[in-house]
Amino acid sequence: MKTIVLVLLISINITKAMAHMPPNPEFSGLKLCYGDTSLFINQSINTQISLWIIKKINMPMNDTITLDSLTTKNISYVFPTQGTYLVTLIENNGHVVEITKQINIGNTPKAEFGLQECTNKFTSVSTCAGTYYWNFGDGNTSISELPIHQYAHTGTYTVTLIVSNGTTADTLSKAIHINTVGFPIPTYSLNVLNDTVYCKVTGGVWIQGQTSWYWGDGSVTYAKDTFHVYTDTGTYKVRLRAWNACGFTFSDTIIAIAHITAINAKAISNTIQIYPNPATNAVIIDVVPTIQDLKIYNMLGEIIYNSTKIETTKLHINTSNLSKGMYTVQVSTNDKMTTKKLIIN
Question: What is the SS3 assignment for the chain?
């Protein structure tokens, strides 16, 4: 039997990554009023090189003329006349993606907004706005120019923006559909029992996402809740990788495992048979006559079944009251121990 002593468990960090996904260009404009110096703020994701192009739409022919092109991340610009302009932001990280917004430069407040979903940042190209009032449609509000608001759930929300300048105001309401609530940032728990590490995603931001566990010994498990059995003494870096439409994150956890004492290295795994597996209402476990102890653990490392007086080689266990998921069956003799996975559907 092996005894593994856990001596250190540290949560390290969470790192966002995009796996070289194309840019997601987005921008906002402030002080978009004739006579003011306007500021355009780059809110793009996964960008390296930015190019701004400003064009004037000439009426009544509806043709355009390019006024300027700039390559800084954020730009300031004074519009020469009142009228309708097209502002284009081109982002390049090996993939080239652009976004264009039409802006009417004058002296009257006009509300216009959008949402950069993965960053939870609202965008605005409202004109002549002195004050802002946002209603996010979920009971929350803001008076920021460019607020950041994270929704608790996916779904459709009616968002309202009121901009005003003096006694003049304008209101715009839009239905915003939230497909994901941002980069996946899961919370999780780890429990160690003998040579087995139990991992469970407990919550956090990862809606419509997927997870995988990297155990630090060359093996990977693609699941949200799972466990892993180590065979050697050592220090292992367990990494939880979570991803959704916005990208993926890595969270690092260092597990320092102390000595493993080998009482008898001979495995008994081949003598244990579990069927049906996956199981629903009942499971049968075939064991050797020398078995002294059989335990079943849930994903939290809690014992949900324990038998210490085994007088048969065929155990019939009722599993109808168990929740769906993965369990660990641990079987011990005087000098041997093995674990096997049991899945309940």
Answer: CCCEEEEEEEEEEEEEECCCCCCECCEEEECECCCCCEEEEECCECCCEEEEEEEEEECCCCEEEEEEEECCCCEEECCCCCEEEEEEEEEECCCEEEEEEEEEECCCCECCEEEEHHHCEEEECCECCCEEEEECCCCCEECCCCCECCCCCCEEEEEEEEEEECCEEEEEEEEEEECCCCCCEEEEEEEEECCEEEEEEEEEECCCCEEEEECCCCCEECCCCEEEECCCCEEEEEEEEEEECCEEEEEEEEEEEEEECCCCCCCCHHHCEEECCCECCEEEEECCCCCCEEEEECCCCCEEEEECCCCCCEEEEECCCCCCEEEEEEEECCCCEEEEEEEEC
